[in-house]
Specification:
Layout: H1 2-21, E1 22-44, E2 60-70, E3 77-87, E4 90-99, E5 115-122, E6 125-133, H2 137-142, H3 155-167, E7 181-189, E8 197-204, E9 224-233, E10 236-253, E11 259-277, E12 282-301, E13 308-330, E14 333-345, H4 354-359, E15 367-379, E16 384-396, H5 402-405, E17 425-441
Antiparallel strand pairs: 1-2, 1-3, 1-17, 3-4, 4-5, 5-6, 6-7, 7-8, 8-9, 9-10, 10-11, 11-12, 12-13, 13-14, 14-15, 15-16, 16-17
Length: 442
């Protein structure tokens, strides 16, 4: 018993010495609200004279959900961060942060999915290793009056998340990885003493295995390369960012080890954001362009000859968006508003099916979505706030790309499906959402 007590005292003494040299902070946010989501789908047929079936009476249908939600104003989380002063201007630090679902308690600190980094910083800047925000996501959230939280999350971020989840590489941590966050990353941040200039470079290791006996290895799927450069001084803040995510990189081999098919898919994102605080109001703006470039190859023979060659085809889908926003302080509160629009430009070859040729569908292959959001935050203290938000998304020609452009304001009130440019069925039309909640930070 005496030996155990001495060991415990020694451990406490060691911990006391360590704490004298460094600082560790426990922090977090608990955000909970009542939310209502409604999505409207319309029945679409490529034949303009076709009548909708009996179950599509009126040509539209709605799905709705009322839920106790989390993260309507700020993402619920628990985190630990610490810094040790190494002397000479150097510091070592760590940041471990986990998202939680406090509304139902289903997810606690089971992983550090929001951030898990180790850093070394000094006069040279900061070297940061681990899981962190992707460089190109920063502008989508920093220049959004709603901070990409709740029903007011701007349409650019909403659709970019859908692109990543559907076409991107994803990961075991999140389907949206390489857009919102990226793991296994190496990041460099400029020092903060450059007269308002700030920036970062980021590279994510794909960690795929190379085989010396197989061509096309290692696959680069999962790699992310990005950077951001900005300037902040007084009321002005502006930044530009560019990033490339390798969504697919594969080579199919036959029994002889010859490549018979290839795919290389890359998602390129470029955005520019800015804000200016006039005092009575703060204005926000962002423009964004995302290109989903998918190149596929198939081994074929030249016509009439037994000469094989790799026949390649490239499709480039583009998503061009902009967002305008404003926040207005009113006593202890803050009014928030934004408007956003995203246009999808179809990069597929013109369709040759009978419906497309008969009804001229090739002349209408794009999709446009618009969103308007309004909210109010009332600060009860520095840590606690009440909030209310409402948002509406409206989609034109949603059948052209329902998977990506079928954005909803939140929850599980998804659109009905089946309708495409060439097939009859349901297509996304509009989505409405409300949040009423409370947030506490500690």
């Amino acid at each position: 018993m005496k030996h155990h007590s001495l060991a415990a005292l020694a451990l406490l003494a060691t911990a006391g010495t360590a704490s004298a040299q460094s600082s560790v902070t426990v922090f977090g946010i608990v955000d909970v609200g009542i939310s209502r989501y409604t999505s409207k789908s319309t029945y679409h047929s490529p034949n303009p004279f076709a009548l909708p079936p009996a179950n599509a009476a009126g040509g539209s249908a709605k799905t709705s959900q009322t839920a106790l939600s989390n993260s309507g104003y700020a993402g619920s989380r628990v985190g630990f961060r610490g810094t040790e002063d190494l002397g000479g201007g150097l510091a070592a630090s760590f940041w471990l942060e986990s998202g939680i679902t406090n509304d139902d308690g289903a997810k606690g600190i089971t992983n550090f999915n929001r951030r898990s980094t180790m850093s070394l910083s000094g006069p040279f800047g900061e070297l940061r290793l681990g899981r962190d925000y992707a460089a190109t996501f920063w502008n989508d959230t920093v220049f959004d009056p709603f901070g990409t939280n709740g029903v007011g999350t701007n349409l650019i971020a909403n659709i970019n998340s859908r692109i990543a989840a559907i076409a991107g590489p994803g990961s075991v941590v999140a389907a949206t990885d390489n857009y919102i966050r990226t793991g296994n990353s190496i990041g460099y941040f400029l020092p903060p003493n450059l007269g308002g200039v700030y920036g970062q470079l980021q590279y994510t290791l794909h960690e795929n295995t190379k085989r010396s006996d197989q061509i096309g290895t290692p696959s680069a799927k999962g790699r992310y390369v990005g950077g951001r450069l900005g300037y902040a001084s007084g009321p002005l803040d502006m930044a530009i960012a560019y990033g490339q995510s390798t969504a697919a990189d594969s080579t199919t081999l036959n029994a002889l080890g010859i490549a018979t098919a290839t795919q290389e898919r890359k998602i390129n994102a470029l955005n520019l954001g800015a804000s200016y605080n006039f005092g009575p109001a703060k204005l926000f703006a962002e423009v964004s362009r995302v290109q989903d470039k998918n190149e596929t190859g198939t081994l074929q023979n030249l016509p009439g000859l037994a000469v094989p060659f790799m026949n390649t085809a490239t499709r480039k889908d583009k998503y061009n968006g902009y967002m305008l926003g404003v926040t207005v302080p009113v006593g202890p509160g803050l009014i928030r508003a934004s408007y956003a629009s995203v246009k999808y430009k179809n990069g597929a070859p013109a369709a040759t099916d009978l419906n497309s040729l008969l009804w001229g569908l090739n002349g209408n292959r794009d999709t446009t979505a618009n969103q308007i959001s309004l909210g109010y935050v009332h600060n009860l203290s520095k840590r606690t706030a009440l909030y209310a938000s409402v948002s509406r998304i409206r989609i034109k020609d949603g059948w052209n790309n329902p998977g990506v452009m079928g954005a909803i304001t939140g929850g599980s009130a998804a659109y009905l499906t089946g309708g495409t440019a060439q097939a009859a069925g349901w297509a996304p039309r509009s989505s409405m959402g409300y949040d009423f909640g409370i947030r506490h930070a500690f």
